[in-house]
Amino acid sequence: MAKSLPKQLISERVKNFFEVGLGFSEEEARKEAQRCLQCKNPACVKGCPVEIDIPAFIKLINEGKQKEALEKIKEKNNLPAVCGRVCPQEDQCEALCVLNKKKAPINIGALERYASETGVSLAGLAVNRRQATGDRRQIKVAVVGSGPAGLTCAADLAKMGYQATLFESLHVAGGVLVYGIPEFRLPKNIVQNEVDYIASLGVSIHTDALIGSTYSIEDLFKDGFKAIFVATGAGLPQFLGIPGENLDRVYSANEFLTRINLMKAYKFPEYSTPVNIGDKVAVIGGGNVALDSSRVALRLGKEVTLVYRRSEKEMPGRFEEIENAKEEGVKFNFLTQPVRILGDKDGFVNGLECVRMELGEVDDSGRRKPHEIKGSSFILNVDTVIIAIGQNPNPLLTRLTQGLKTNSNGTIRVDDHLMTSIPGVFAGGDIITGADTVIKAMGAGKKAAVEMDKYVKAVIQDLKG
Ligand code: FAD
Ligand code: SF4
User: Fold this and answer.
1) Is the domain of 342 the same as that of 269?
2) Ligand 2 proximity of 170 Cβ (cutoff 6 Å)
3) pLDDT cut 90: percent of the chain above it
4) Total structural domains in the chain?
5) Relative to the CA of 35, which ligand 2 atom is closest?
6) Are 210 and 102 in the same domain?
7) What would the pLDDT profile of 197-212 be if each residue is shown by its tens digit?
8) Nearest ligand for residue 95 CA
9) Atom of ligand 2 at shortest range from CA of 108
10) C-alpha 38 to ligand 2 mean position (Å)
């Protein structure tokens, strides 16, 4: 595990929504960059789904060439300020760094964040921006959904010279980066800067456009778009299916975080979106979404208990965020499964009945399966429940588009080229994998751009012939 960054003081940060990790100073960044061995055959690059030339950008930081370092990163990654903050580097590039042998891998994420901040302040949006040239300039391509998959695909298509248009159903672009991940992990202005950069490449961004309803896929083809990338994500919350889920003050994490982030409920009454929660909050789940919900509720001044059915070792959330949540005072109730939400006579939550679990054999997910301990039932004294046990693929577009084939879990079916059952329609990101990570969604966006380019060229060749 790489050494963690300096952070805001715990006593301060639990009272505000400012960013927790403070980022490297120039001196710290150069010191960290000097530790890199500049391996001839760098393992870290193989761990990066978009294959950033990691040693090269680290070398440039060491030489004090921040703008060039950012240019190097942007050859492969259109959202470095985002990835530097939220990528699970400990499972990807950093996990493969040879310095793990000495238990001191390079903090690649922090260096990426450093390069993105200093590089942009030196060069603004001009870093690695190329204007559209060549024979693709008249060709229109569409991208549906503006999360990391859609943003990446649109940016790469624009860099290839296409007229790329991005359609987003919400009023702001960014997907989970803006409506899910809280301000204290990923400030909204950082995401907006990345979106502005992508717009500056020539991508036209249409918000409030729900594809399948405002326009259909057929409408887009009729309007002259030659290929379409669907990146509509996994925004449909899962529920536990236990009694009491319809009570007042039971939230899906999705609704809770959207109210907080996108509608700025945390600034109530300055912003008028209320978020009606009590004083004692149970958050159910063990991933990043559960950790984010817990830490938001904590910052609203609530007592927060995270309820997870496995042990800490199996938690899918990022290690750094588990540590942050612990430091901030989130209580953890491991090996605990909710079985019923209790309500008062007015229909408000007034307790959560749970049972204790023990771990048995390893299941399909590679983790030990939890089993109920008979007679272990107990009541948690809470007045609000936030459910963060996972999200399913967004069903709107798939339900409204004839001929777009899906799998039994609702993900869109694609071939090896990310093409769906409709010729010219490609898909990638969480909508084909189910809820996953930012960088994997970006990897899919990059691959889709290459495949769409090949497809469009082949179609145009056919037309000419
Ligand atoms: P999304 O980001 O979901 O974007 C899809 C977009 O499509 C949305 O903006 C949606 O409004 C839009 N859309 C949907 N339907 C339509 C339609 N019909 N027409 C037009 N637009 C439409 N991953 C990490 O790597 N690290 C983390 O720390 C991390 N933390 C997370 C915290 C939370 C709270 C959540 C919810 C997820 C987190 N993830 C994290 C997961 C990561 O954010 C997702 O894997 C990633 O955002 C998926 O990208 P995507 O582009 O496929 O979809
Ligand atoms: Fe540097 Fe580690 Fe990558 Fe080697 S594996 S180039 S030491 S970051």
Assistant:
1) yes
2) no
3) 82
4) 3
5) 7
6) no
7) 999 999 999 999 999 9
8) 2
9) 8
10) 6
